[in-house]
Write the structure tokens for this entry.
Amino acid sequence: MKLLAVSKQQHAESLRCAHAAGLVDFGENYLQEAEEKIAALADLPLIWHFIGPIQSNKTRGIAAHFDWVHSVDREKIARRLDEQRDPALGRLNVCVQINLSEESTKSGTALADCRSLCATVSTLPNLCLRGLMAIPAPLTDFDSQRQGFHQLAAEFTALAAVHPTMDTLSMGMSNDYEAAIAEGSTLVRIGTALFGARSRSQ
Ligand SMILES: *Cc1c(COP(=O)(O)O)cnc(C)c1O
């Protein structure tokens, strides 16, 4: 189980404290804000994960500064990240984001399309297909939370049988991580429960 500290809208000094307390993996949603923190914390051996929606004009910066991307949801973005990744940096670790509830306002590929996207990512030389990510609709009831995660876990098991590099099931946030862990999450993305309310203005 990996704990990803979601540090969007937190100051670099808060990340420094979190690292002193033992955290190594940090998740960011906004490229420009992340680039500032990555530069400010370059003296620390941190692992950076991009977890926000990806516009095409952001792929170059993401490919240059991050170790992981959890929010790849279409082939065009995967191909751009692959083309723009400097091979000297090693492969960029990728999770395909699934939109479980198929809410049109959310990013993520439909469950029905994720197999072909995973197949494409697995062929790209500068990417390494590591797993699946989802942000289910916010629910407060534990059993309902489990249902969405269960669907994702079943898809993950099926895909990992085909793609042996898949070892990461990125699911669970501050309000639903217990249900995610009960369904086999290997990585929880926790922001407010670690850092408190987000304060930094954009
Ligand atoms: C902000 C965010 C989180 C963390 O949410 P919290 O509720 O603060 O734990 C996790 N994953 C993604 C993709 C996010 O954008």
Observations:
- Residues 142-162 form the longest helix (21 residues).
- The pocket of pyridoxal-5'-phosphate is lined by residues 6, 8, 29, 51-52, 135, 173-175, 189-193 (CB under 6 Å).
- Strands lie at 2-6, 25-28, 47-50, 68-72, 92-98, 127-134, 168-170, 187-190.
